[in-house]
Amino acid sequence: MDYFRAVYLADERSPRVLQLTQEAISLNSGNYTVWQFRRVILEALNVDLHEELEFVTSIIRGSSKNYQIWHHRRWIAEKLGTDVAGRELVFTKEIFSQDAKNYHAWSHRQWVLQCLGGWEDELAYCDELLECWSV
Question: Which residue positions does the secretion signal occupy (predicted)?
């Protein structure tokens, strides 16, 4: 973390610092400063955000109730636009299959629907959930 603080203060935006943020996140995925600086670096390096979405997916699978991760995922989805709406809705369904009460996933799903679309299948999904929960 001392190394991270040094490159953060120097405002270094390089591939090695991007890798360093990944290592720092693996140690503490709740460190908001690391996530924020990672976003700055991603933009500066013009990194493929589809790859970043894969990285975040792997982190969420291990820590699905972490606000910072979901905030970062929303930032990525917002940058990628409506093309990822379906993918995000499928991902939240996966999270719900493990924990139907995950507030962060529900919040993310609502945001996706409001900002990126996907409403056309939502009523059918709600019916599916009601049938599962009524058994």
Answer: none
Which is the catalytic residue, given 65, 79, 93, 101?
A: 65
Q: Determine if the pTM surpasses 0.90.
A: yes
Whose structure tokens read 């700055």?
Answer: 40
Q: What is the pLDDT of residues 23-48, one digit of tens each?
A: 999 999 999 999 999 999 999 999 99
Per-residue b or e along 79-118, where b marks 16 or more CB atoms closer than 10 Å to that residue's CB: ebeeebbebbbebbeebbeeeeebebbeebbebbbeebeb
**Rounded Cα–Cα distance for residues 67 and 91 (Å):** 16
Distance CA 38, CA 107 (A): 23
- Taking only the tens place, the pLDDT of each residue in 63-91 is 999 999 999 999 999 999 999 999 999 99
Give the distance from CA 87 to its chain's centroid: 12
For 11, 29, 54, 109, 113, the CA distances from 80, given in Å and listed in that order, are 25, 22, 13, 16, 15
